[in-house]
Amino acid sequence: MLPAENILELANGLKAKGESFAMATVVRTVAATAAKAGAKALIGTDGTISGGWIGGGCARAAVLRAAAACLADGQPRLLSVQPEDVLLAQGVRSGEAKEGVQFAKNACPSKGTMDIFIEPYLPRPHLAVYGASPVAVAVAELASRMGFRVTVAAPIAEHEKFTPVDHITEDFSLGNEQNQVAYIVVATQGVGDYAALTAAMNSGANYIAFVASHKKAATLKEKLALSGVSDNRLASLRAPAGIDLGAITPDEIAFSIVGELIKLRRRGHRDAVA
């Protein structure tokens, strides 16, 4: 079993790589249990324990199920593994939740109880901002504050406009960053619009928004269609970008865009819970 400090080093290494995982920590034990309070384990998205130890088979299956649910909805859980007669005495059954605690049955002869806190660690959602317009600068700054990992693609001469972001480049293709980007906001506003949109359409991003009018977006969509971009991909382009708030200023437009990004991000968690 790895010491706690080694588990934390392993966790920091996974976070640095941008990998998702859950940390399970034993917070209380009653009677005989293999693991004691303070024991920790890291569970990956593949459902395996990558480090640490939280006991044998009596609790392992329940912890792995709870960890998978944590990684799916982004919410921590308190799991209590107890003998069936103890559960029934409290009026709960295995698989039920009560007052913020999820319960599971301990079928092992030890008949011990173990409470485990399981916390998900998810990488920051990755947003790429194309352009150096006032809207692009405002989106990059606000999204960084809202917990997004931000990559900016803009001409080198314009880099100084931006507050510090995670990565900045002049290449719309983003290089090694491309496959990690979930959201793209094209805010070139007349400076390389077509090149930026072409790169965005050829990326793997699920969300692509274009800061432009309906008319301008329609014109560029026609060009993109002629270049071979599929109708389904073009239909996913959001233009004008952001939630319709009647925004006028760059900061207001950025607020509407980042607001939509937050809505999409959190809706995924709520849908997973439902």
Characterize the main sheet: 7 strands, mixed
Q: What are the secondary-structure elements, in order, as H or E?
A: HEEEHEHEEEEHEEEHEHHEH
How many separate domains? 2
Instruction: Please bin the fraction of helical residues.
Output: 25-40%
Instruction: Kindly identify the CATH topology of the largest domain.
Output: Rossmann fold
Summing up helix and strand content along with how strands pair, one would put the structural category as alpha/beta
How many strands? 13
Query: Taking all residues together, what is the mean pLDDT?
Result: 88
What is the CATH architecture assignment of the largest domain? 3-Layer(aba) Sandwich
By CATH, the superfamily of the largest domain comes out as: NAD(P)-binding Rossmann-like Domain
Cα(first) to Cα(last) distance is 36 Å
Strand content: 15-25%
- Uncertain runs are 269-274
Rg, alpha carbons: 24 Å
Strand order of the largest sheet: 3-2-1-7-4-6-5
Rough outline: elongated
CATH top level assignment of the largest domain = Alpha Beta
So how many helices? 8
Highlighted features:
274 residues; alpha/beta; Rossmann fold; seven-stranded mixed beta sheet; six-stranded parallel beta sheet; 23% strand; elongated
Describe this structure in words.
With 274 residues, the protein is of the alpha/beta class. The chain has 2 domains: 4-121, no CATH class; 126-263, Rossmann fold, CATH 3.40.50. It contains 8 helices and 13 strands. The protein has helices at 4-16, 57-73, 84-89, 134-145, 193-201, 214-226, 231-235, 250-273; strands at residues 21-30, 40-44, 49-52, 77-82, 97-98, 101-105, 113-121, 126-130, 149-153, 167-169, 183-186, 207-210, 237-238. Mean pLDDT is 88; it is low at 269-274.
